[in-house]
């Protein structure tokens, strides 16, 4: 199942208007996962309501998360789930952009995904779209809401 949402606004909005509102600003946002590890987002886009530029802070060392090309341009609504052994975290990855613009209306495209990140390597090791509603089990496996083990 792939979730794609299109929102159309019927007001008079120009491309220039969206570009002016669509600026990402520096905004330090820190989310502590445990005593040693935190997620750090370095920027925020208020129009899209998404945080960008993810880093892992592990024992006070800040490492930028390595992203595959399929994860570029994604933001976050600050969803995260830490594995029981604290080796992995699941974060949301949301792409929002205007795919149609005119003087009369605009279409906003939203694509919701998530990623499993190896906290020690600060690297995305699995990206998902269908199984983001899962949870960690006691064996440190990501399990979909349907009970299927998605990551071991």
Ordered list of secondary-structure elements with their pairings:
Blueprint: E1 4-9, H1 15-21, E2 24-32, E3 37-45, E4 50-58, E5 61-64, E6 80-82, E7 88-101, E8 106-118, E9 123-128, E10 135-136, E11 142-143, E12 149-151
Antiparallel strand pairs: 1-8, 2-3, 3-4, 4-5, 6-7, 7-8, 8-9, 10-11, 11-12
Summed up, what is this model?
This protein has 152 residues and is mainly β.
Can you describe this structure?
- Strands 1, 6, 7, 8 and 9 form a 5-stranded antiparallel beta sheet that branches. Strands 2-3-4-5 form a 4-stranded antiparallel beta sheet, with no helix packed on it.
- The two termini are 22 Å apart.
- The chain has 1 helix and 12 strands, in the order E-H-E-E-E-E-E-E-E-E-E-E-E.
- With 152 residues, the chain is mostly beta strands.
- A hairpin with a 4-residue loop joins strand 7 (88-101) and strand 8 (106-118).
